[in-house]
Each structure stands twice: as C-alpha cells, then as structure tokens.
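Structure first, sequence second, as always.
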C-alpha cells in the first residue's frame, strides 16, 4: 500500500505515520528526545505494505465493540444477531473498523482526521449491527505527544449499542541503552475480571498472582491477556506508564474516565506490550 500519511511536528521533529487503508491505524510514532529518535510503537516490518494482520501492530481501533463477543451472538431490542467468527471459529473479535479503509476528511502537517461510517464504508456489515454509526478520529502531534480524539455519532433514529477500545503495541526497550528486563509497567487498576477462555464471567476479583501495578511490575515477568478494572486515580484523567529504567525514558498513555477497563496483553515472542483502554469490558453486550 502507498496511501500513507506522515505527520511531523516542526518544533521537535517527532513523526507519526497512519495507514488509512487499514483501519486508520497509526502504526509508527517516533518521538525525539535530546536529538535522539525514540520508537514508541511496534508493528511488523511489512505493516505499511498492508500484508500484515490488521490487528498485529500500531494502534488498531476497536469499534463498535472491543475484543470479543461470545460466539458472535447477541440480542438487541428483541432481535438476534450473528457476527462472523474469528480464525479460531469461536467468537467475533475487535469490531468492524480496524480492517477496512477509512476516508481522510482533513489533513495538515501535524494532524489528520479520518471517518468511518458503517453504511458508507462497510455496507456489507450493516445487517450485523442494530444501526448505523459514524466514527471520527483525529490524530495530532503536539511536540513529543501523539493525541487522539474520538467522536461517535448515531446517524440513525434508534438507540444502538457501542463500545470503544484501542489496542496499542508499545515497543520496549525505548532505546539501544535500555534492556527488556529493566522495563516497568504502572497502571491505576485494582481489580480484574474472571475469564474463562478469554471471556469474562461477570465476576470481578482482586488482582491475581500478587501483582501490584500501582507500584509497578517488570514487563519481562508478565504473561498476560487479562481485563483489569476498578481504576483508582485523582483528577479528570488517568495515566498508564511504561518506564525504561536503564534508558531513563518513559511513555505515558493518558485517558479520560469514559475508559473504565484496561486489557494488558503480552504478545508471545515480541519485545512489546499492549495496554488497551476500553469503555466497556469484553463481551459487555452479553454480560448481566
């Protein structure tokens, strides 16, 4: 694919690259600290070509549901819906927008806006959801910060269910001077959902294995694909932080309180970690 959009912050030289044809995925973000580039996101080498799995790198956008829906089935206002299942044939996964082309509606040197309307950009999927929606996303570089704004519009006349999540892959360590073993994750979470085959039962427990994300855990010791909740923080927003102790660098992901749950996923065989803010848990539409 050649339809790449690169944003540049003129003051710092920070850059971000977005692939509109694959879910409006921002798959590369390079900050510049003391004149040195810091690659923040992880993605397969062929991601820009469009040949990689759409959910395998960068920042996949998950909408109108994040993560899984059990057996791809749900009921809404008296009607049953069956969604296509994932490659394992068990559940629907990650929504409708992460693997389809988006339309670019505004663009400048350091910002870009993309839109996805179900009836326009994926009309073959209209029958899979109770109504039409419009999702608008802005990406903007502000010095060494990458800012994303989301606007969700119900363009129909009836209520529709929705949930939003992002699935960012963060690269670690953050510099050649850093070490995987010295990278720490800090989260304001205090509880987690009980899962059976990656789906929540509805029960919320204390965080298992004596993990203390508020004080910090070393990423190299974790093997996770879990949903954490009950966030404990002060102020109008919360931070989730990755710290490369040896390099003296950190990445901070800041979210507003509409994001109530956090999935932490450690991809096998990759020096990266996913910290995924969700507005609702996996399979929320089927949870009591």
């Amino acid at each position: 694919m050649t339809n790449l959009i690169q944003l540049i912050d003129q003051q710092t030289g920070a850059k971000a690259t977005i692939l509109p044809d694959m879910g409006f995925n921002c798959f590369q973000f390079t900050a510049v600290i003391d004149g040195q580039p810091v690659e923040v996101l992880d993605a397969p080498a062929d991601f820009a070509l469009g040949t990689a799995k759409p959910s395998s790198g960068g920042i996949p956008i998950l909408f109108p549901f994040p993560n899984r829906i059990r057996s791809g089935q749900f009921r809404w206002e008296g009607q049953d819906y069956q969604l296509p299942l994932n490659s394992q044939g068990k559940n629907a996964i990650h929504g409708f927008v992460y693997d389809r082309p988006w339309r670019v509606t505004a663009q400048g040197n350091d910002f870009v806006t993309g839109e996805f309307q179900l009836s326009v950009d994926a009309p073959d999927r209209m029958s899979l959801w109770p109504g039409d929606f419009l999702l608008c996303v802005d990406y903007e570089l502000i010095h060494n910060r990458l800012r994303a704004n989301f606007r969700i519009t119900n363009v129909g006349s009836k209520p529709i269910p929705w949930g939003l999540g992002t699935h960012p892959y963060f690269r670690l360590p953050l510099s050649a001077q850093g070490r995987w073993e010295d990278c720490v994750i800090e989260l304001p979470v205090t509880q987690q959902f009980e899962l059976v085959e990656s789906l929540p039962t509805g029960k919320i427990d204390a965080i298992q294995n004596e993990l203390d994300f508020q004080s910090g855990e070393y990423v190299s010791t974790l093997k996770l694909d879990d949903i954490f909740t009950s966030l404990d923080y002060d102020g109008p927003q919360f931070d989730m932080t990755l710290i490369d102790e040896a390099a003296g660098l950190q990445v901070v992901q800041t979210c507003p309180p509409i994001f109530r749950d956090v999935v932490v996923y450690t991809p096998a065989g990759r020096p990266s970690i996913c910290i995924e803010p969700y507005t609702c848990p996996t399979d929320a539409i089927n949870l009591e």
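Margin note: Residues 172-288 form a domain with the Beta-galactosidase; Chain A, domain 5 fold (CATH 2.70.98.10).
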